[in-house]
Specification:
- With 337 residues, the protein is an alpha/beta fold.
- The protein has two domains: 136 residues, Rossmann fold, CATH 3.40.50.450; 170 residues, 2-Layer Sandwich (Endonuclease, Chain A), CATH 3.30.870.10.
- A seven-stranded mixed β-sheet has the order 6-12-11-10-7-8-9, with helices on both faces. It has a five-stranded parallel β-sheet with strand order 2-1-3-4-5, with helices on both faces.
- Helix 1 crosses helix 5.
- The protein is elongated.
- The two termini are 48 Å apart.
Length: 337
């Protein structure tokens, strides 16, 4: 299902602006987009926890188009319109009759509307939006940048980006966005994956995404993998026994989550070894090499776009380890080689 993010002034509950925004949404935008089975998202209707600004920017980048209501000259609306243009998203502008479009956006697809009963009955503005969307469908929702030669600000177009130390990647919300923003796959690969297991509402979010079709694979080290002894430098303050204990507990926790959904799978690596921590979604992979001398938080972090060589190489490594570790292994087995 395609998605449309509605960029609109919201206003306080019961205010004139809120009433106007709701009327435009209910009587113009929603009937038009329903004809194409497009899911509508508006910022005040996002139920997820986290920073609303992050959710707005993520919704703009992951939506197939944006519908922008410019009435009331709201500065936040103009800012979000600029973000949508930087992400090269198709934009449909709605503005109440009697208002004038700013010069810089006069070439955008625009519908000048009113909220008269006759207009609604005749579907005047609903049909105008439908015609615009039909044109977008013919071009598979692809549009040219508003600024000639502009490189899209789009996660899907990132090839390779060095982000410094892993611990500086961002807040918990930034890490959570890695699975909130993906629709098809979310893969995790690491020794203990303890930080993910301890994440707030991790189980709930995983099950919610899985129920909507997201394929989740979790690949972690087996506590009896012979290579584990050579990977842990105990002078850094972490013992092998502590790592083994974390692996056992986290594997049990992840497995219990997986039992609740056919779209979640968990495996441990007994054959082969994990040389990095990696996170995959539809658009990119995060790569953190395992360093014998330090913790993963101090490891360098690369972000590799889905079409990059590094993404394909990491995915090949993930799938190889996943496939060779299909066998059922007794927790007490020591016959590995």
């Amino acid at each position: 299902m395609r998605k449309a993010f509605i960029i609109s002034p919201i206003g306080e509950e019961g205010s004139k602006i809120r009433q106007h925004a709701d009327d435009v949404f209910d009587f113009i935008i929603e009937p038009a987009l329903e004809a194409f089975n497009i899911e509508l998202i508006r910022s005040d209707k996002i139920a997820e926890t986290g920073k609303i600004s992050h959710q707005i920017y993520n919704s703009i980048q992951t939506s197939d188009l944006c519908v922008v209501v410019l009435s009331f000259d709201n500065p936040n609306v103009f800012y979000e319109l600029a973000v949508a243009q930087c992400a090269v998203r198709p934009v449909i502008i709605l503005i109440e009759k009697g208002h004038k479009l700013p010069f810089d956006i006069q070439d955008e697809r625009s519908v000048f509307y009113d909220l008269k009963a006759r207009s609604y009955v005749e579907k005047k503005y609903i049909n105008a939006i439908i015609e615009i969307i039909k044109n977008l469908e013919e071009n598979d929702y692809k549009v040219e940048p508003s600024i000639p030669g502009f490189k899209p600000l789009d996660e899907k177009d990132i090839t390779l980006d060095f982000l410094g130390q892993t611990q500086n990647f961002g807040s918990n919300d930034d890490w959570n966005d890695l699975y909130k923003s993906t629709e098809e796959i979310f893969y995790l690969m690491g020794i203990t994956l303890d930080a993910w297991r301890r994440g707030k509402n991790f189980e709930k979010h995983m099950l919610d995404k899985a129920s909507n079709g997201l394929k989740i694979k979790i690949l972690m080290m087996h506590e009896e993998n012979p290579a584990l002894l050579q990977m842990i430098y105990e002078k850094t303050g972490v013992s092998v026994e502590k790592i083994r204990s974390d692996i056992k507990f986290n594997f049990k926790t992840f497995s219990e989550i997986a039992e609740k959904s056919d779209n979640i799978e968990v495996k441990r690596v007994l054959y082969g070894t994990l040389k990095c921590t990696a996170v995959f979604n539809d658009y990119f992979a995060l790569y953190m090499p395992h360093l014998y001398s330090g913790s993963v938080g101090y490891a360098p972090l690369w972000k590799a776009g889905e079409n990059s060589y590094l993404y394909k190489l990491l995915m090949e490594e993930f799938e190889t380890l996943w496939n060779i570790n299909n066998q059922t292994i007794s927790d007490n087995s020591t016959d590995f080689l």
